[in-house]
Amino acid sequence: MDMKKLLLTVMVLIAALGAVTGEIKAAEKLDSLSYAFGQEFTVASMAGENDLMRTRKDFVDYVKGLEDEFNNLKQLNDSSAVISYYIGYWLMPSFSNRDDVYQDDIVNRNKILASYDCIISGLRKTAKGDVSLPADTINLPSMISQYGTDSIRPVNRSLCEFYTAYGIKLAYQPGLQKFLEGINPGTHCTVNRQAFATGMADCLESARVPDTTYDFAKGMARVIFMNSLSMKKPLDFQSVVDGAKGALGLSVPLIPRYEAEQVFDKYSHSAAARDDSGIIE
What we know:
Elements: H1 3-16, H2 32-45, H3 56-73, H4 79-91, H5 106-127, H6 140-147, H7 160-171, H8 176-183, H9 193-205, H10 213-229, H11 237-248, H12 257-274
């Protein structure tokens, strides 16, 4: 992973969050850029051979997934939680090679996905505050000695206990507060381990090919949320949902499609010129 790029991205995020003092408040009226995001991301999701986006029921499930995940992510209602989530999301790839899940070897791919499930379980356990330390990780050193140090790639035996403990250990890795203070001297933010673990779990979960339209939409919501974090003015998620509904024909478009396209294109071009858009493709 390019750590320099990570540092620059996080610094942009912190600068954008400089005015955050409490809850992230939704806009009271329709936001055109947010609406355009919802429209354009949804249109893009239907391109190509996406069997999850075919029927009206698929469209309704997609909107439901967006709404539910946005509501979950909006619980990150202070700058410490938001920054911790962001760092967790971007650090996770440095601990795993998510491209492994796209390899042609189906058997090995399924083993890797099984290990991911167990790692995610450990991270989610931390995110919920259900971890008991050191009890939940005390056996990890001996398990590493037994099974090897390559903790992402599975061996041919059940290692879910090992991977779950590894997921918990990831969330409690040392040095995060020093890392945060190093990139933003004088900050009053403190690392939120639960938000950090949530970011890592969401990132790893996004490596999976979704089984349902609802899960597909949840992943899309996370991508849009991460884009929003890098903006000086955060997106209004209700307007994003409205844009998705308009694109899918589930409601009367609140902004003509061509106008929303123009708004999105204008933002994309200006962001590309700044080279700090944070857009995740």
